[in-house]
Amino acid sequence: MHLYQDQELKIYNSLNGKKEVFTPLNEGHIGMYVCGPTVYSNVHLGNCRTFMSFDMIFRYFRHLGYKVRYVRNITDAGHLVDDAEDGEDKIAKKARLEKLEPMEVVQRYTVDFHTILQKFNFLPPSIEPTATGHIIEQIEIIKDILEKGYAYEINDSVYFDVSKFNEDHEYGKLSGRKLEDMIANTRELTAQDEKKSPQDFALWKKAEPQHIMRWPSPWGDGFPGWHLECTAMSTKYLGETFDIHGGGMDLKFPHHECEIAQAEACNGHSPVNYWMHANMLTLNGKKMAKSTGNSILPGEIFSGNNALLSKAFSPSVVRFFMLQAHYTSILDLSNDALLASEKGFNRLMDGLKILKNLDTAKSSDFDVPAWKKKCYEAMNDDFNTPILIAQLFEAVKHINAIKEGRENISLEDKNELQTTMNAFVFDVLGLEDKNDNEGDTDTLSSVVELLIQLRKEARDNKDFATSDKIRDQLAAVGIQLKDGKEGTTFSVS
Ligand code: AMP
Ligand code: ZN
Predict the structure, then answer these.
(1) 183 close to 191: Cβ distance less than 8 angstroms
(2) How far is 411 from 405, CA to CA, in rounded Å?
(3) Where would you tag: which of 170, 264, 305, 394 has the fewest CB atoms within 10 A of its CB?
(4) 408, 428, 448: which is the final residue of a domain?
(5) Which ligand 1 atom is at minimum distance from the Cα of 281?
(6) Closest to 228 measured CA to CA, from 256, 247, 270, 196
(7) Atom 14 (ligand 1) nearest CA
(8) How far is the CA of 36 from the centre of ligand 2 (A)?
(9) Does the C-beta of 44 come closer than 6 Å to ligand 1?
(10) Ligand 1 in contact with 288 (CB < 6 A)?
(11) Which ligand lies nearest the alpha carbon of 290?
(12) Strand residues in 200-358 grouped as ranges (E)
């Protein structure tokens, strides 16, 4: 008996705007594809939010007992600047600016992506395929679309013919757009444009001589269009129809719309049963984005090294902050919000510690089975983590009352409460009780700051024996002091 057999999970399907009961194609199994990062720069906190939403979803599926094949790709080619059809590949541009091989850029930022996700305690996906590792599959799809008459070749590039597709399919059904409106709202094609219509999108682009990332194809040397890799990799690993496709809200159009068109053109039917879109993290009320400079890197939050922050925050506190909002709501990052989340996170962790040592009684004042049911109801209602967290705090309230002798709990209920709390806090929300270590770090900083102050006083008093002793003995235990214009700082080796 699996947990999922007892639960009715509802998912908000972006395809029809409805919350639907989730029924996977194959009982007990789920195929889920999530668009991964473009690895040409450090992953910012906004990107992390989207991947964290799907990490939580992946975790809940696993908790329910599903066997999940979770595919999250790495976009390491074919993404043009400003997502335009023309211009330079973002990775190639970075490679030119930093005088690196494109694959050095890819390696650097893939490592950064993995390091950050590990800090946030993400579970690795089942498969993490790369776009450049699937050029052959992408070429095969283009051939298929050309054969079926939904694409045309021009000047050694291949474009998807949106108008032709729209004759017997519905282009725009995911984003709720009508092709006629799109045509009415776009500029005329200029003489340099080789596409038949502005709505058409590239499946294959001819590589100009200076273009570094290029592959041979039936249409000459070139590179694949932006949307093709996800169709190629999702079909290869999950099949022509699979359960869930996810990504950030900003990918709905044109990326996911084009994915649907490509797959329908090839296979004649819709590729995905449930489309899920995670909402944006904002900063100062605006979407966090690397390109506009309105972004914070995770490393800046972990170190506190950013003018917006009054202190450092641990990855679990940031994780808790993000999961306190529903994945479909916009969330604004601020120092105050992080401070409040840290308080809440600590209260939750304290509650779990108290729970371990609670004395039990013959009966309970806290209806644990009813509470547990509410936790599942929250998650079954389109992964409502804010409601789940409210229920976890409800449990903490009872835990504190039991500790203070105002309420009782039976041994059976205590065990049930502990198992359920641990499952939701650690397995489903993916939080880690590392704040203890953070506490140690805070204490260490305070002690070293005190020694730096005493050393300064010794130096001001020309007591160099004492000031040198402080410096040398700190160095002996691996703490280096560095004197600078702004005062003395320290590092731990
Ligand atoms: P990219 O590397 O630009 O392809 O983005 C990777 C993922 O991060 C995509 O699913 C985007 O939708 C998502 N993303 C980008 N900016 C934000 C943001 N400010 N908040 C949440 N998700 C974002
Ligand atoms: Zn994609």
Answers:
(1) no
(2) 15
(3) 305
(4) 428
(5) 20
(6) 256
(7) 47
(8) 7
(9) no
(10) yes
(11) 1
(12) 201-206, 222-224, 242-248, 272-278, 281-283, 286-287, 331-333
Query: Six-digit token pair at 171?
Result: 């282009």
**Residue whose pair of structure tokens reads 């070429």 in the numeric block:** 139
d(CA 256, CA 309): 35
Question: What mean pLDDT do residues 472-482 have?
Answer: 85
Output the pTM of the full model: 0.88
Ligand 1 pocket, 166 CB below 6 A? no
- Per-residue pLDDT tens digits for 262-275: 999 999 999 999 99
**In contact, 153 and 244? CB cutoff 8 Å:** no
Q: What domain range includes position 406?
A: 282-428
Q: What is the mean pLDDT of residues 372-387?
A: 98
The answer on 270 and 323 residing in a single domain is no
Residue with tokens 């001819």: 206
Residue 466 forms part of a structural domain: yes
Are the CB atoms for 359 and 440 separated by under 8 Å? no
Is there a contact between 215 and 135 (Cβ–Cβ < 8 Å)? yes
| Ligand 1 proximity of 132 Cβ (cutoff 6 Å) | no
Check if 252 has its Cβ closer than 6 Å to any atom of ligand 1.
no
Same-domain status, 207 and 340: no
Q: pLDDT tens-digit profile of 71-126?
A: 999 999 866 654 455 567 788 888 888 888 889 999 999 999 999 999 999 999 99
